[in-house]
Amino acid sequence: MSAESLAKSALVGAFSGTCLALAVIVSIDGGWTVSEAWSIPIILVMYSVMAAPFTGVGLCVFGLPLAMTLRPLLRYRWSAVLALALGALGGQIFFDIVVNLLWGHLSFTIFSRPSIGMAWGTTSALSYWYFERSALLRRGKPLN
């Protein structure tokens, strides 16, 4: 497990997760007008910068223990699908916990519907899977 993979994954996951969530919101909302288009880059940068520390903490809390446990599966390419699924679950849980701790009543029995936490979790998990796998292959280490 490298700190470089973790840092890159947190940044890539924050930015790509924000892009993914914004694309979903725009598609559901019916799109933006030309007069609103100037705000897209500002929104992307602001939300990505705010999300980066949380994606990093989420990777440390959920991703690292799972990565150590599932390390033998890293050699298989299909493990990216597993990373996506576990990232979505971990991102949703972590997002709900953080939001409830900061702004509301914490309840472990009621989780909100799918949210931006899933977008940040899936993209962070997939980028961590990619960076960690690439680093191991570059060093010539076996993936098992």
UniProtKB/TrEMBL annotation:
<feature type="transmembrane region" description="Helical">
    <location>
        <begin position="12"/>
        <end position="32"/>
    </location>
</feature>
<feature type="transmembrane region" description="Helical">
    <location>
        <begin position="115"/>
        <end position="131"/>
    </location>
</feature>
<keyword id="KW-0472">Membrane</keyword>
<keyword id="KW-1133">Transmembrane helix</keyword>
<protein>
    <submittedName>
        <fullName>Uncharacterized protein</fullName>
    </submittedName>
</protein>
<feature type="transmembrane region" description="Helical">
    <location>
        <begin position="80"/>
        <end position="103"/>
    </location>
</feature>
<keyword id="KW-0812">Transmembrane</keyword>
<feature type="transmembrane region" description="Helical">
    <location>
        <begin position="38"/>
        <end position="68"/>
    </location>
</feature>
